[in-house]
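Sanity check. The docking grid for adenine depends on where the pocket ends up, so I'm generating a full predicted complex first rather than guessing from homology. Inputs follow.
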Amino acid sequence: MQAFIEGMPKAELHVHIEGTLEPELSFALAEKNGIELPFDSPEALIAAYDFHDLPSFLTIYYAGMSVLIDESDFYKLTWDYLEKAASQNVVYTEIFFDPQGHTSRGVAFETVITGIRKAQVDAEQKLGIRSQLIMCFLRDMSAESAMEHLQMAKPYLGWLVGVGLDSDEYNNPPVKFKDVFALAKQWGLKLTMHCDVNQKNTLDHIRQVIEVIGVDRIDHGVNSLESDELCELIVEKQLGLTVCPVSNRFVVQSLTANEIRTMLDKGMLATINSDDPAYFRAYMNENLIELQQEGDFSQSELKTLMANAFKVTWLPEEDKAAYL
Ligand code: ADE
Ligand code: ZN
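Predicted complex below; grid placement will be based on this.
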């Protein structure tokens, strides 16, 4: 089964590039940039990863960004992720980035997006892995800040396939960003938003992303199973759900294997993703292998999960066909 999983051509649709920052790279960049980390070694840094909910994870995730300063840092971060993904037979990936996590530290938007883009182009040429970029807004920042960042992205629209919404969901509902997402849609960008597992008002948030924002996909969205009506809407609109099993384990102590199987049984387009693989210590193969073990998934179910991912990618329809 492990060989089957490793050999499958895979698509990943929910991975935060800042969440792929490996401790070894953190140390290398800290040294290069003259930044002192409050740990003696990469192992000590990993030992300090103490997540039990979304806020406790986000604190560590944002602190980790401090070593990313110049274009070459964003290039190396992205190149290393794409190299790792390609080594796991990921043939296509849609990558999130969080520009506000960098502009708020004085790093220019252009520095961030140019470093990421150059690595994407090189990785496609040299490693054969195709990728597209999704700009996320931090939902615990203001709608005005999100709008400013959308405007900053205007000269780079050709490098973006869509926009997303991440960070702390508590009291930050999707409707807060209604105008920002409406403008992004007008500009031809695809839309997705996080509805993380077990957040306050999660069913309201899932309803808003579908009915008010009109998203093309939902990130996580596992709690939709609590409402037959929402499940039916998700099936009717053929919305992909980018589920992240190992990430879920930090919040609900389970890889949500039962929930993922229920989604498949209901005809929902569930997909498997790594979210923040350097922090959760699991890339695509590890997510799939652990999920298969927890839920005793068959090869046919795993194939369905991966076919779902290719179906709900934001590739042109004619390009999708090559993978299905
Ligand atoms: N930022 C990075 N990973 C995230 C996640 N899983 N949920 C919300 N915001 C995030
Ligand atoms: Zn995420």
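Relevant for the grid: The first strand starts at residue 10 and ends at 16.
Also worth noting: Residues 14, 16, 166, 194, 219, 275 surround zinc ion (ligand 2) (CB under 6 Å).
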